[in-house]
Amino acid sequence: MEKLALISLLALCLYLGIRLFLERRSYRLLKDHFRKDSLGSESLPGDLTPEAQKLGLAAIDGLHDFKLNADLDSYQRRFLEALLDEIKDGIVILDQNYEIRFLNQAAQLLFPSEQPYLSRPFIDVCRDHRIIDTIEMACNLKSKTSDQIDFRMNEMDGNHVRERTLQIEAEPLAFEEASTTVGAWLLLRDVTKELETEQIRQEFVANASHELRTPLSIINGYLETMDEEETDLNAPVFKRAIGTMVKHGDRIARLVEDMLTISRLESASNLLNSEPFNLVSSANEMISHLTPLIEKNHAKVKLNLNGNEAYYIDGDRYYWDQIFFNLIENALKQNPDQKLKIIVSFHEENGRIIVSITDNGIGIPAADLPRIFKRFYRVQKHHSQTEIKGTGLGLSIVKRGIEAHRGTITIESIPGIETTFTISVPSSGAVPVTKENG
Predict the structure, then answer these.
(1) Residue 396: which domain range?
(2) What is the DSSP letter of 96?
(3) Do 244 and 383 have their domain in common?
(4) 44-53 pLDDT per residue, tens
């Protein structure tokens, strides 16, 4: 019996030893397998024990779940970063030490740097303590805080600086499981253009009110005098007054029409009635309309077509009629009795039509050239106290109309010799068959 028990014990030990050897070899094979294939392919070594095979399959499932979650987190992060990059306002996320954890492309444009942004102290990037003060105030108050600052922004080349106005909003970041603030987020909005637009609007209203007040005061003054009971309306003075009121009434009507045109051009991209038309036809028609003024001033207007009879663009003919009318009329009115010569030239260059309107009049002083297209700006006092002034909006309408057609206009002037307005606008390419060219 003792011999039988000893043999049984030896057999059991041998069995357990073999099982231990097989299990250890299986686990070693699993270890080598996962070391070579960290993603855990579904194929396992064939000579594994059942227990090791179950463990391997469980490990593969765990690795797949981990990879799936990691890919999902990475996708969500890339999606959110791409979404934030599309926002035009700068967005910055900071940790509790005010070091950068994320900033979108708009923020990078505000704070250009050749060094990596992540994990850097934000003060090293923005270099403005007022922004940091706003963040600290938000964290101390544990609420959203805003401020507006004038900010000197470096250009990408590092050689130029721009003055911008930034609207800053800061708010602390905290999570439900965290007892303290873990960081802050920052929104930076460039409101420079908005403030400039508001300033232009205020100046426009003030200037328009001033321009309307004078003719209205003159008309109302005459009307009050005529309304008196003993007034003889047939007196020569009142006949002259009627003519004066008519002139000022016409001035008010044109001023209102010009202001409406400016207003329409502010959103011209949605209002343009674009279709192919011949610029030469528009210029010819406006010259015909101005023939009485041309003859009165003993002036000459010539078209230089550079061998072509038609220059087509896609645009709104109504606004181009106003562009040619204002530019030619402006030259005529500024140069009365000068035997003025005006040349309107056309040529095509690199897919764009270049129009030049040149006159040999008194010209424009160099100091006035940067402001020539501003609303209500006039270069000089009018030639006569009795003649009604222009509205001061003609060149503003010209510039806005050309820009609405994706064009540009520049001016060069040598006083007493030559003044040239140069317009560049995209050509339509194809020439349609119309009554003009058919």
Answers:
(1) 273-438
(2) T
(3) no
(4) 666 666 776 6
